[in-house]
Recover the amino acids of this structure.
């Protein structure tokens, strides 16, 4: 095999690709801008939206309670909610976001409390809708205070201490480092984004160097050159691999700079507290190292599939479904309960995404890392072998 010939083909294809605007956008612009937009832009937007939702005074509907005047008066005195006129179509109004929540007070509520009974208060909400959740939360907070006050009064009337109902306290404490907490929340997203960008970075060069050559009528000219087809496919492969690696490097660097620059994630503060963003250089390098075989696999597979197409548009129609094949296992790594094991370590893409998630948390399962890297190299070598074989077939090269 002549490295000189491969280098000549590679330099020629690299020069042509750098003149292509679509390749530059997918290889450089997208990875550089995507992570800052996702982290800073969407993070800031989420904080603003959640903040505005919390500041809003939600409209709530009170159903019943006519025989509990003290309770109704206390509810109307709340400044955190706005009581509206009751209506039998309260469920539809909540679903249509005309009101945010409704509370149903059982008949004889105050009298039942005085008798020591335990009536049930129903709070109706739109699950999954943040403003409705805030409205229901404020109602529930009010009734919890009322319940605690009622218990205190009943115990005091019997000369009993409040500790009778709380003989001991339960307190949860986090023992994981901030790095692990942050990685557990966002590690799967990082691996998913890096893998997806590696594929998109290789897609346009792979199409241009195969179907694009056919459409421009330059494939025959290249094949007539005094270069073996093996050298030709290796040069084209190296060009696609360069684009994929460049996308991977830029996306990882952009990710590291974006996350380290943000410091703390305010958007998750309400649910998870202050989540300290911790991302070490060794973790970034390890994620990049684990994606190397995947970039080879993507480059060879995309080059092979695009070679079957007769035109640029046809190649796009072939390769677009591949995005779904990549997205499904990458997203599966973020599902609860999907954890790295020996079987999943052999599944391409999914295994890389899972191990990247573990690496971001600062956990290095070296046995799985070796197994994943080795299996990914085998898949990449098989894809590379198939690409070379396809370039040897005349019926594939000259499809019309």
């Amino acid at each position: 095999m002549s490295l000189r010939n491969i280098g000549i083909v590679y330099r020629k294809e690299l020069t042509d690709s750098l003149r292509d605007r679509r390749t530059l956008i997918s290889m450089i612009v997208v990875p550089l801008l995507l992570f800052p937009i996702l982290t800073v832009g969407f993070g800031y937007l989420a904080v603003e939206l959640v903040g505005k939702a919390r500041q809003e005074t939600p409209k709530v509907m009170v159903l019943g309670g006519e025989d509990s005047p003290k309770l109704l008066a206390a509810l109307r005195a709340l400044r955190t909610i706005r009581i509206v006129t009751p209506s039998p179509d309260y469920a539809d109004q909540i679903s249509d976001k005309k009101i945010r929540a409704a509370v149903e007070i059982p008949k004889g509520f105050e009298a039942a409390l005085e008798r020591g009974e335990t009536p049930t208060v129903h709070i109706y909400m739109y699950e999954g809708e943040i403003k409705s959740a805030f409205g229901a939360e404020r109602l529930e907070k009010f009734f919890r205070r009322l319940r605690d006050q009622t218990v205190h009064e009943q115990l005091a009337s019997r000369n009993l201490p409040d500790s009778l109902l709380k003989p001991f306290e339960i307190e949860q404490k986090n023992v994981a480092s901030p790095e692990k907490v942050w990685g557990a929340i966002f590690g799967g997203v990082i691996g998913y984004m890096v893998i997806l960008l590696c594929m998109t970075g290789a897609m346009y060069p792979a199409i241009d160097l195969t179907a694009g050559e056919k459409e421009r009528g330059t494939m025959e000219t290249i094949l007539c050159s005094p270069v073996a087809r093996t050298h030709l496919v290796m040069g084209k492969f190296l060009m696609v691999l360069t684009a994929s690696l460049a996308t991977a490097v830029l996306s990882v660097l952009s990710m590291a700079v974006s996350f380290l620059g943000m410091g703390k994630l305010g958007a998750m503060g309400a649910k998870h507290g202050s989540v300290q963003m911790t991302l070490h250089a060794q973790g970034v390098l390890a994620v990049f190292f684990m994606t190397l075989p995947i970039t080879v696999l993507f480059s060879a597979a995309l080059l092979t599939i695009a070679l079957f197409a007769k035109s640029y548009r046809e190649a796009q129609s072939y390769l677009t479904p591949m995005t779904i094949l990549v997205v499904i296992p990458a997203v599966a790594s973020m599902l609860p309960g999907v954890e790295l094991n020996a079987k999943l370590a052999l599944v391409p893409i999914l295994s890389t995404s899972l191990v990247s998630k573990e690496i971001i948390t600062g956990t290095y399962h070296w046995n799985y890392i070796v197994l994943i890297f080795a299996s990914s190299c085998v898949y990449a070598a098989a894809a590379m072998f198939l690409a070379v074989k396809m370039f040897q077939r005349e019926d594939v090269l000259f499809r019309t």
Observations:
- The longest helix spans residues 21-55.
- The chain has 16 helices and six strands.
- Residues 139 and 171 are 25 Å apart (CA to CA).
- The mean pLDDT is 81.
